Amino acid sequence: MKDLIFDEFQNSVDSCLLRHKSILDILSKLQESESKLNRSVVKAVTSCGCVKIKAEKQGINYRLNDDSLNKLNLDDLDIPLSSHLEGCVCDNCRKIIERELGNHLFYVTSLCNSLDINLYDVFLSEYKNITTFDKINLR
Ligand SMILES: [Zn+2]
């Protein structure tokens, strides 16, 4: 069922893309949509103020010695990582950010279409990567 939704979305994007069929147009529109997405998040901070950024150094607090190296369990890692965000996006900012995410997803899908890549296969592959490697696959 989920693969049908992905395929239907991918087919719809293909039928909507009339003006920007060129890979050059798609790549530039993809970059533009990412910039607009980033800007919508920045404006939530700087114009609306519903969220604040409070950033500081982050680190992994884990002391390794010879004994613990042999018994290293990734689940025992104490990783106090922060998003550096305070607050929650308001309804208006959420609406804008969601719109920009959708626009960006449109151009990601357009890129998939141009290169004959199935979007659902990409999601499945990435899902397998993040669930197989768990914390080893730190990003
Ligand atoms: Zn807001």
Could you describe the 3D structure shown?
With 139 residues, the chain is mainly alpha-helical. The protein is built from 5 helices and 2 strands; from the N terminus they run ααβαβαα. It has helices at residues 2-16, 23-48, 66-70, 91-114, 119-133, and strands at 51-53, 85-87. The protein has a two-stranded antiparallel ribbon. It is globular. It starts with a helix and ends in a 6-residue tail after the last helix. 8% of the residues are buried. Zinc ion is lined by residues 44, 48, 50, 89-90, 92-93.
What coarse outline follows from CA principal-axis ratios? globular
Indicate the radius of gyration in whole angstroms.
20 Å
Main beta sheet, described? Answer: 2 strands, antiparallel
- The helix/strand class is mainly alpha
Distance between the termini: 30 Å
SSE order and pairing:
Blueprint: H1 2-16, H2 23-48, E1 51-53, H3 66-70, E2 85-87, H4 91-114, H5 119-133
Antiparallel strand pairs: 1-2
Helix pairs in contact: 1-4, 2-4
Q: In brief, what are we looking at here?
A:
By secondary structure, the protein is mainly α. Helices cover 61% and strands 4% of the residues. The chain is globular, with a radius of gyration of 20 Å.
